[in-house]
Amino acid sequence: MINIKLKSTAILLFIIVLIQACSSTKYIADYQSIVKKVTIDSVDKKFEEQAYNYVQKDLRPASKLSIQVPLYNLFNTKNGRYKTNDIKPFGTPPAILDSTLVEISRTQIQKFLKSKGYRQAEVTSAIKVANKKAEVTFSAKPGPAYFIDKLTDSIPNANIRNLYLSNKAGVSHLHKGMQYDEDSLTYEREQIYRIMKENGYFYFLRPYVNFDVYGAEPTSKTNKIDLNLNVTEPAEGHKQFNIGYTHMIIAPNPDGFPDSVRYKLSKDTVNGIIFTDFSKRYRRNPIVRYDFLKQGELYDIRNENLTYDRLYELNIFKNVKIDYFRRDSTSNRINTVIQLIPQKVMSNRIEGEVPFNGGTVGFNLSNTYTNNNIFRGAERFELQLKGGLQSRIGNGAKPFSDIYQRDFSISASITVPRLMIPFYNPNLGGNGMPHTTFSSSYIYALQKDVSVRRIFINSITYDWVETKSKLHSFTPLNFEYRFGYLDPNVDAETVLNNLYYSTLLGRKDLTLGMKYTYTLNANKLNEYRSFVYLRAGMDIAGNMLQGISKLGGKKSDPANNDPAKILGLPFNQYMRPEVDLRWYKHLGGDKQFIARLNAGVAYAYGNSVLTGIPFEKQFFAGGSSGVRAWQARTIGPGNYDRGLLRSDTLRRAFFGLDQLGTMRIETNLEYRFTVAKKFFGATLKGAAFVDAGNVWNLRKGESILVATPTLDEQTVFKLNRFVQQLAIGTGVGLRYDVQYFVFRFDVGLKLKDPQFTGSDQWVIGKFLSGAREFKNNYNATHGPDTYRFLQYNFGIGMPF
């Protein structure tokens, strides 16, 4: 059904384009023409794209692949002409020739070339019209490029001159011998302005910085230019200012500060800050903590921007405004006024769904309540209730007369905008807002005549930003209590046919551990530059409970199925390090190469030496962000081959079960490029990739998927079999980038499949010759599993 809908939509769009694409000329007057092509000749390649941006927008023709004009024609034409009123907001109108716009474009392109150092540049325009279709050509005669010969400066204020010279090497783009470029002058002016505003010169303005340009006249016989930098001095001179007191004022409600009402301002100054809250909703300390304009310190615009950022990140104010005033003209202190307008504090969201599935019907309902200021300190509280029922239908039974499954969960979390550490109060807001999150959840699931599950999870997590590129997340407490109960009356055949899930449903254990994750350069992932990205983490559990159990004096023998217990349940003990390392190499423009290595190990020991790693802590390979030629959780572990399960009953029992392991190694090589910058209103990007990897078990007996010693041996990692156990795939992909979202489609092709042996692993040969026979033989020996050479992946966002 989905494929039919997609095909129907595609056919409809194709028909619209086919009918409307070439019909725009019939909707315009006889004296008008539609611009089909704009060309700019004789412009240096590095400036072509920038020069085209100076062509007036209404003169630029739409891309040949775009449906924007056909859509506009469909909704905004009447009686064979374009409508002049009641314009529908669909698509964009065609570019209609306008000689005034042509002349404006010509002048702007010429000015642009002059600004880039071609001081003698001249641009002419030509228009060709045939059958109401126009082609506009801009021809440039750039002339010689001008280069900077001398650089001097005139800065009468000694302090400012010293400040500029001490920072010049790190910020200036100007140097002798470079091609003259007005953008470089603008950049220099902006850098000087920034330096002044960062060093106390509050009243410094950009117009104080200007340049004398000598020898740049188009009639000059030489192509040399001399530049002199001026920083002019106002009548009162340039002064540095310190911060006086700060008055922080919160409006009475989200409507702001009424002009008609006068409020009494507080006069109590604490640590240089006067805090007045007309709304009576907020405590002082959690808010003033993020005022970085400290009394007595030199004014620095970075602290102003930091104050803006953190107060907005508190997520309780919809508007933040910072003003300054001086008590008298002779003072070198400026006082700060921070006006805060609160936003709506509480919200509630209700969601529901009615799932149908093979003779069953049900409903799921959830309610999420959010309070962004529950303890008057910008603490975010979220409470979610979820519940659902599933009922069998058919044989004349009424819906919900035979309810076989009930689910209920309640979860709550409180996020505080600081690190709540006993006996320690670090101020880590300089590079990002720190958070402490307390979360708790309870899950109840009943499957009639099969099982009952109860899960209780609690955690405390600290998140903080060391620098903009270095992020930390530490969970010192992660407690999970899982109690499953299998109905003793459930028949053996049901257990066998649901072997994997029966094991999970009957699981009884608890986990007490901690986690730490370090991330480097996550802020650069959407930039075209060369850098290394790292995400490394450690998850460790059970050591504290092991110590407590030993102090209790009760003996245990985990290796002989007698683990130590806490609260009557065995506890998990393991360590799980994982690393994601990537190298992003910028190849110019929109081209990029990425090499990635993702590896992890989950090692059970002590109290879990026999029971092994919990299900949710194991690794899988494949999927849209792994080895993309395989569906997620369908590779390995190792050389695992279901064909060795000679029993149809066993193969059915293991069919569709997640193929997991206690160790993973995946690597990806991907080349990214742009296919079309204007494709249906967005950018179409492409990728070519090669992926390799697998999951393994560290020891025998760690996988529920095995039924024979041979299968068990195949799942274990051995260095001398590493290459034989690698899955390798390749493929291509498309990314539809609409700025806020990237819609991704990848096609992966299997090259080497580790479930086979020897040369048979290179299944690409079978794909190219004898694919049908190969698949038929595989289906006969591995059924109900089937074989696919190609894997399609859809997703939102980049794979990594």
From TrEMBL:
Keyword line: Cell outer membrane, Membrane, Signal, Transmembrane
Annotated Pfam families: Omp85
Alphabetical list of Gene3D superfamilies matching this protein: membrane protein fhac: a member of the omp85/tpsb transporter family
Domain Bacterial surface antigen (D15): from-to ranges: 477-760
tRNA-binding is among the record's keywords: no
Subcellular localization: Membrane
Domain of life assignment: Bacteria
Name of the protein this chain belongs to: Membrane protein
